[in-house]
Input
Amino acid sequence: MSYAAYCRFLWEAGIVEVRGGPPWFVWASGRESPVYVDHRRLLAYPSWRRWVVEALGQRVGQGPPMQAVVGVATAGIPWAAWLAEKLNLPAGYVRPQPKKHGLGHQVEGLTQPVGPVLLVEDLISTGGSLLRAAQALQEAGFFVGAVAALWSYELPEAEWLPFPRYILLTFPQALLYWQEAGFLSEAAVAFLR
Output
């Protein structure tokens, strides 16, 4: 398996969808886009899951050591758990808000603050969900050492994120592959940029 094969797989499996015109997809941030990435579909492909975890784990392993891996609910949770397993680290996750019942926790799995932690999300668009999760972790006494994601749109809105990043694949990289593979025309790539 390779990055080129992974890009092809994302396209052919419908994990990445591209619309040539309205109606556009609406992201969680509220932004409208002709592109939507549904990493939840990737969960159904064990060989690609393993490849993603291996490739992302290698990137994370080249950086400073982390003490735990924390997923952003909900899409980051499985990837954080698998990365934690690969890196032999404790795992947890962070909710958008504290629970309104039980113990009222916002951070689950990790019982005591540690740091640095690797914060994992499936993708980065504007960076809003990562920043909110990082703030919740910091308020609970954790130190966010870096963030990891399977995909980044590389939008200017996310440039301000104050953490080192480990990204498996960026939208500009994928566009180049899809153009070379004949999935997208030069005009389509220019439009999508």
The first helix runs from residue 3 to 12. The chain has a mean pLDDT of 95.
